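pinging the channel bc i need a second pair of eyes. not urgent but kinda urgent?? the chain im working w is below, pasted from the shared doc
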Amino acid sequence: MEKLLIRALRKEDSRSAAVVFFEAVHRGAAGHYSREQRLAWAGPEPDPERWDRVFDGLEGFAAEVDGEFAGFLSLDGEGYIDFAFVHPDHAGTGVAWQIYQKIEQDARERGIGKLTTNASRVARPFFERQGWSVEREQQVERNGATLTNFRMSRLLS
């Protein structure tokens, strides 16, 4: 049995997050987005310097499986989940669900009544299984390519 640890994101996670993001987009989303779209979204290789900037002040939770960074979700003070990525090697294993449970708990503790996100085609079914609703389909431009995502929300009771 693999050992799973859910913990707060740390600034020093940025480089590992760059790899998880890259792999999640290029491998995990391969059946949902074209190669051109994936390149526009995540680039041709991981970009650690960009993720150093992204992680400056980013809040959320990370998962480690057997001591290896496996995924992360972010949550801002308004209830917006900007990043929700799990390494494809851990897709379907419950890692995302475990991180998400911590996100919801944190949101409730902070008094956030509604969560929102812009979910990819890959993430949409995951969020729907957690009780989220699609508000609208969106077409977004990323580096010259158009990608479909979904504005989603969930009221916390």
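so The first helix runs from residue 14 to 28. and Residues 21 and 85 are 6 Å apart (CA to CA). — does that match what u expected or am i reading it wrong
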